[in-house]
Amino acid sequence: MELNILYSYVIEVLICLHTRMLQKLPDLVRSLPTLASVLRRKTKNKHIRTVWESILEEYGLRERDVTALCTFFVVHGNKGEHYTANVRRMHIKDVSFMITNMVTNQALQEGLLRAVQIIEKGKAARTPETSRAPLKELMPPVKG
Questions:
Q1: 97-118 residue pLDDT tens
Q2: What Pfam families has UniProt attached to this entry (predicted)?
């Protein structure tokens, strides 16, 4: 079960990165059908590399994190099962604690922790109540 929870975060982040690349490079949608194609082409194409680096910066990721997440996906992808956010929350209350205690490889641990932050932050940002709350509602009332 823990493996599937980690797999779910990994696959969602990899999809997120690929989707963001396609959003920033709509003219290259057909030539970048997979994240693997992005990773291959960024070494030869400066424009793709520049956009890739800006996306990594946008999400607070490093190449090392992506390498660790891709390695995890290659190793565990054939037996991994995707769990939705609700199912993940039902089974594990603190996934960061689980990662810290379960994953011994430092690079993978850091990559997984960042993946969790990206997915959780992204999901929280899409909630209409939090994204539309005016500043006045977020500030405590001033007495006096």
A1: 999 999 999 999 999 999 999 9
A2: DUF4547
Whether the CB-CB separation of 114 and 120 falls below 8 Å is answered with no
Q: Spell out the domain ranges in the chain.
A: 2-138
Residue 121, pLDDT score: 83
What pLDDT, on a 0 to 100 scale, did the predictor assign at position 122? Answer: 64
Query: How does 10-25 read in b/e, with b if 16+ C-beta sit within 10 Å?
Result: bbbbbebbbebbeeeb
115 exposed, middle or buried (CB, 10 Å; 0-12, 13-18, 19+)? buried
**Three-state DSSP class for residue 84:** coil
Alpha-carbon distance values, 67 to 56, 59, 88, 90 (Å): 12, 15, 24, 29
Mean pLDDT for the stretch of residues 29-49:
96
Helices 63-76, 2-24: axis angle to 10 degrees equals: 130
Q: How far apart are CA 101 and CA 97, in angstroms?
A: 6
Q: How many CB atoms lie within 10 A of CB 133?
A: 11
Structure tokens at 78: 């054939």
Listed in sequence order, the residues at least 6 apart from 81 whose beta carbon sits closer than 8 Å to its beta carbon are 4, 7
Q: 67, 108 in Cβ contact below 8 A?
A: no
